[in-house]
């Protein structure tokens, strides 16, 4: 599926709107994500923190897990909105990589301004992928 400018805009807007539901009472760093599947559906996500700090989860992983739990495994793009265009953490890069290195990543700020367009492959060079588990040992 070809990502058009209109789709980019819609995805960023969805992430921006979702961001209001972020539960970030500890870091005060609200994150919204919106994930577009090959079937054309969009799953949003927000970061959800916890008083037991390590038990919180990032917005990107919430979006991916929502999608996968509904049978979606092929993703076109994910938009991430933060106050300042922050980039996905290492764990989110790894979870995105599981479902495709070609997934486009759009980073936008709190005004919905697109600051960077990149891909999972670019964000996680040399990723460990399912193929490593399935190929014959060398
Ligand atoms: N956070 C995300 O939601 N996505 C990322 O990729 C980076 C970090 C969240 C986790 C935590 O709730 C807050 O931002 C500060 O780290």
The overall pLDDT average reads 97
Strand content: 15-25%
What is the CA-atom radius of gyration, in angstroms?
15 Å
CATH superfamily: Cytidine Deaminase, domain 2
Which percent bin holds the helix content? 25-40%
Bound molecules: tetrahydrodeoxyuridine
Write a compact overview of the structure shown.
The chain has 138 residues and is α+β, with helices and mostly antiparallel strands. It has five helices and five strands. Helices cover 30% and strands 21% of the residues.
Description:
This protein has 138 residues and is of the alpha+beta class. The chain has one domain: Cytidine Deaminase, domain 2 (3-Layer(aba) Sandwich), CATH 3.40.140.10. It contains five helices and five strands; from the N terminus they run αββαβαββαα. The protein has helices at residues 5-18, 59-68, 90-98, 120-123, 130-134, and strands at 32-37, 42-46, 75-81, 104-108, 114-119. Strands 2-1-3-4-5 form a five-stranded mixed beta sheet. A hairpin with a 5-residue loop joins strand 4 (104-108) and strand 5 (114-119). The longest helix has 14 residues, at 5-18. The N and C termini lie far apart (35 Å). The mean pLDDT is 97. The structure holds tetrahydrodeoxyuridine.
């Amino acid at each position: 599926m070809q990502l058009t400018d209109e789709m980019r805009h819609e995805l960023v807007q969805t992430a921006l709107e979702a961001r209001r539901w972020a539960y970030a009472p500890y870091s005060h760093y609200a994150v919204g994500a919106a994930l577009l599947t090959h079937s054309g559906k969009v799953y949003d996500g927000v970061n959800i923190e916890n008083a037991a700090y390590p038990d919180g989860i990032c917005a990107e992983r919430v979006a991916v897990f929502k999608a996968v739990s509904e049978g979606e495994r092929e993703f076109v793009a994910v938009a991430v909105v933060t106050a300042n265009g922050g980039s996905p953490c290492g764990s989110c890069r790894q979870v995105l990589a599981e479902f495709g290195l070609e997934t486009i990543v759009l980073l936008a700020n709190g005004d919905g301004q697109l600051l960077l367009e990149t891909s999972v492959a670019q964000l996680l060079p040399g990723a460990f992928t399912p193929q490593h588990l399935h190929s014959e040992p060398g």
